[in-house]
Amino acid sequence: MESESSGELYVYRNNQRLRCGHTTGSCATAAAKAATLMLLSRKSINEISITTTKGTVLNLPVLDVKISENSASCAVKKDGGDDIDATHGALVYAEISLTDGGLEIDGGEGVGRVTKKGLDQPVGNAAINSVPRQTISQAVKDACNLHGYDGGIKVTISVPEGEQIAEKTFNPRLGIVGGISIIGTSGIVEPMSQEALVETIRTEMKMRIANGSSVILAVPGNYGEDFSQTICSVPTGQMVKCSNFIGETIDGAVEFGAEGLLFISNIGKFVKVAGGIMNTHSKNADSRMEILTAHAALADADNDILLKIMNSVTTEDALDILSENDLLQPVMRSITDKINFYLNNRAKGQILTGAIIFSSNYGLLGETENAGKLLKILEDSL
């Protein structure tokens, strides 16, 4: 990560120079600090400086200032940098009120409430995660110390557009209702952050296990979600979207104490797992045709067929060649056996793993050894 004299931060991803942003947690911290300073000094300010947990100094504009006798409020705008998400541009408000004693942090309009176990905050709390709570608390205490104030403070964080924004996020799937979450561990949004995506997947798995799901059903994306409805009765809202992070999803299921993990995936993505590839994004690895060709060779395909498969552009083209030569079933059996091996290998035998594989044109192609057992456990739990 690099910084410029303007104070903006940049990272390099795939040979591109991308601007970083700041989290909703940083916005809430900055707004709370600014509102506290203004309430205690009775003076308006237009910029506030905070230091993130990683030591980065942010100088952020202070907007929509209101100061009264016993309270003050202001807003800081969320900036996603070059990784614009649903919260980019939202105003995060903090209202500071004087109380008889202690420091209280709560959520107001547009900040969600936790309704399910297994999340960062207990059921009933505002969805303001622990790291932002710590940074808000410290920023408010610092401001109070600066003015010699040792009385009570109540901090209310709100996001007026939060309820509408939340509909575009994972919050409804996680059981967070009424608005967005105030999140962030580093205080900085790094463009295309793999860590942030993985953490979202882990959070959803942890929540589902904490709420009684012994088996996790994971789908890489919408295709898997749609196909699952043709073979099982598990509602799509109970499926974890794992994107390309197959290995990390298995790791999380083991860590959080799941009994089992079942994937339902299109062959175009999951054929890579038959080669031991645990992050299926094309920038990490492809080898789809190499894997299909190798398994066709194991099924005694001749050289002409192998060359055609190897030169195929898509997996569907390769499946057409296998089907035309009566090789589809034996090749899919061979591939699902290898998928089974690598899933179990990553899980180290600590949980049951399985996969059901399909294609857009051919439908169900095959399933691993424990897939049927895992699917029955899922459906019996409904």
What features would you describe in this structure?
This protein is α+β, with helices and mostly antiparallel strands and 382 residues long. It contains 13 helices and 19 strands. The strands form six sheets. Strands 7-8-9-12-10 form a five-stranded mixed β-sheet, covered by helices on one side. Strands 16-15-17-18-19 form a five-stranded mixed β-sheet, sandwiched between helices. The protein starts with a strand and ends with a helix.
Identify the overall geometry: elongated
- The low-confidence parts are none
Largest sheet: 5 strands, mixed
By secondary-structure content and strand pairing, the structural class works out as alpha+beta
Topology:
Blueprint (H helix, E strand, L loop, with lengths): L1 E2 L5 E5 L2 E4 L1 E2 L1 H18 L5 E5 L5 E5 L1 E5 L3 E7 L13 E9 L3 E5 L5 E2 L15 H17 L5 E7 L3 H5 L4 H4 L1 E2 L10 E2 L4 H17 L4 E5 L2 H10 L8 E2 L4 H10 L4 E7 H4 L17 H11 L4 H8 L4 H10 L3 H20 L4 E8 L3 E5 L3 H10 L2
Parallel strand pairs: 10-12, 15-16, 15-17, 17-18
Antiparallel strand pairs: 1-2, 2-3, 4-14, 5-6, 7-8, 8-9, 9-12, 11-13, 18-19
Helix pairs in contact: 1-2, 5-7, 9-10, 9-12, 10-11
Summary of the model, kept short:
With 382 residues, the chain is an alpha+beta fold. It contains 13 helices and 19 strands. The longest helix is centred in the last third of the chain and has 20 residues, at 328-347.
